[in-house]
UniProtKB/TrEMBL annotation:
Compartments reported by the entry: Cell outer membrane
Main location: membrane
Protein name: RagB/SusD family nutrient uptake outer membrane protein
Species, as recorded: Pinibacter aurantiacus
GO cellular component: cell outer membrane
UniProt KW Membrane keyword: yes
Pfam families cross-referenced by the UniProt entry: SusD-like_3, SusD_RagB
Domain SusD-like N-terminal: 95-232
Domain RagB/SusD residue range list: 376-540
InterPro entries hit by this protein: SusD-like_N, SusD_RagB_dom
Keywords tagged on the record: Cell outer membrane, Membrane, Signal
Coiled-coil parts of chain: none
Keyword Plastid appears in the UniProt entry: no
């Protein structure tokens, strides 16, 4: 592939994944043989559409840069770095954030790679020459590809603002890209997601195979949820309210309010049940989830997982490093605490009695559990100085996972809950707050608080700050916190208010300004775009 290509435009759609080695993405090779010539029947389209999910899994799992997941949490209002790996450092020490940033480059290249794959699928499924497929089947595939294209452009526009708008497959080198307006990007998002909301199947009408319904595939409610978020960013709050309300009123989903699944015989609560391995999918009893990216253990299912997901290493404390502690499933397996929830989150956010702050959801106390150390066995682990940063720090249990075949804890093989009804209520409340419907917003928030057995709130409480607090309570460990705060324009104010100082001070926020509401355009893209000017975002070099 020629190195003059600015964005990774692959002429072959289908199963394309990131290599975990250090090679430039410009040298990447397609990992499948699906090309436009194979997109002539349902099997070809199915294979290519499935490849989009595989590619997304690769994007969310990057073992060579374990700090990738921290980019979206540290330096916001909820967390600071615990054991930094490197790529996340410019996202709390913003003085180091520049156009050579690795995280920005990953977002840009993966999104445009996936967009081109989507464009190949869309162009072929919409071709008048395509025969042998029903119109409904064509539109379902089209909707799936359009949903993923919108997912990528939503990431791009939130991270970079104006970006090149590409809606046709690119099969030859192109070096004259220009940045399109945010309005034009938003228009494509609305078009694609509206198409998906109309033509993707209802969640109970998704395709099936020999094992049952393929709930992991795209459904119309995913498109509606992303459309609601898009409308909020566009300040079309009445339309956002309509989308969120339609999901809630569909009757297809319900807030989890009683215990279910594999651990009901153990101590716990119904909120924590949702995030247990074996409970996350709709077929496993989770009726709250709109979209679950399903993963399998590759030791038993070939190709079941891409790369080695690092979510547990990021979120779970490194308690294994304490003498007298053994790695175990009840503590979530072996973590590294690459991020540490801050004191505002841990001690100032949750009201008394809120289930989301229970011991089953935020793990706070460690008990020595290794009988090989009888002097300490069964006693509380004391909180000593630096140990509270990453060894004994409290942590969310949402990514706890233990595989007895992998005691070292290299990979997290849990499913990814990417959308659920809890967030739908929060999007609805946000739309209502922005329209001044504070009583309605309080009712929406109270639906979550009733489920969490937390104190009820009133219309007087309904502000954007409160809404963002409630998102942290409900969605910690799930939402991309940085994108939430940049979408709402609150990153600087909230990060400096709640998370400016870390312990040790090395990890404190430095240099954060409104410049950082956008990420830098990768310099490599600017340099290679030799036939047109691809402007850098203001404030970066």
């Amino acid at each position: 592939m020629k190195k003059i290509i600015v964005i990774i435009f692959i002429a072959f759609a289908g199963l394309l994944t990131f290599s975990s080695c250090s090679k430039s993405w410009l040298d990447e090779k397609p990992m499948s043989a699906y090309s436009p010539t194979t997109l002539s029947d349902s099997l070809g389209f199915e294979a290519s559409a499935t490849g989009l999910y595989n590619s997304l899994a690769a994007y969310l799992c990057w073992s060579n840069n374990q700090g990738w997941l921290c980019v979206w949490q540290v330096g916001t209002d909820i967390a600071y770095s615990g054991q930094p790996e490197g790529i996340e450092t410019p996202y709390y020490n913003y003085t180091l954030l520049n156009s050579t940033d690795g995280a920005s480059n990953r977002v840009w290249t993966w999104c445009y790679q996936t967009i081109n794959n989507c464009n190949v699928i869309i162009a072929n499924v919409e071709s008048p020459s395509l025969k042998g497929m029903t119109e409904a089947s064509k539109k379902a595939i089209d909707g799936e590809a359009r949903f993923f294209r919108a997912y990528c452009y939503n990431q791009l526009v939130q991270c970079f603002g104006k970006v090149p708008l590409v809606t046709k497959p690119i099969t030859t080198p192109k070096t004259d890209f220009t940045r399109a307006s945010v309005d034009s990007i938003n228009a494509l998002l609305v078009e694609d997601l509206s198409f998906g909301a109309t033509n993707l199947p209802d969640i109970e009408a998704v395709k099936s195979n020999s094992k049952g319904k393929l709930y992991g595939r795209a459904n119309k409610y995913q498109a509606m949820q992303l459309l609601a978020e898009t409308y909020l960013r566009m300040n079309k709050n009445d339309l956002a309210e309509q989308q969120a309300q339609a999901i809630i009123n569909s009757g297809q989903f319900s807030l989890t309010s009683k215990r279910y699944g594999i651990n009901t015989g153990r101590a716990g609560d119904y909120y924590s049940d949702m995030f247990q391995y074996g409970n996350e999918r709709r077929v496993q009893g989770n009726k709250e989830a709109l979209w679950v990216l399903e993963q399998e253990n590759p030791s038993s299912v070939a190709g079941g997982n891409v790369d080695n997901a690092q979510q547990r290493r990021v979120w779970v404390a490194a308690y294994y490093a304490i003498s007298g502690m053994k790695i175990c499933d009840s503590l979530g397996g072996r973590g590294l605490a690459r991020l540490r929830l801050n004191n505002w989150f841990l001690y100032g956010l949750y009201p008394s009695g809120d289930m989301r702050n229970s011991q089953f959801n935020i793990h706070r106390t460690l008990i020595y559990n290794d009988p090989a150390f009888p002097a300490t066995y069964g006693k509380p682990v004391p909180l000593n100085n630096a140990d509270t940063i990453f060894r004994t720090c409290p942590y969310s249990t949402k990514w706890g996972f233990y595989d007895p075949k992998d005691d070292f804890g290299y990979a997290t093989l849990k499913d990814f809950i990417l959308m659920r009804l809890g967030e739908t209520y929060l999007l609805l409340a946000e739309a209502q707050i922005k329209q001044g419907k504070t009583t309605d917003a309080a009712n929406s928030i109270n639906a979550l608080r009733t489920r969490a057995q937390a104190p009820q709130v009133s219309a007087a409480d309904m502000t954007m700050d409160f809404l963002l607090d409630e998102r942290a309570r409900e969605l910690v460990g799930e939402e991309n916190r940085r994108l939430t705060l940049t979408r709402t324009g609150t990153l600087v104010d909230r990060a400096l208010k709640y998370n400016a100082v870390a312990n040790p001070a090395t990890y404190s926020i430095k240099g954060l300004t409104t410049t950082n509401l956008l990420m830098p355009i990768p310099q490599s893209q600017i340099d290679l775009n030799k036939d047109a000017k691809l402007e850098q975002n203001p404030g970066y070099n």
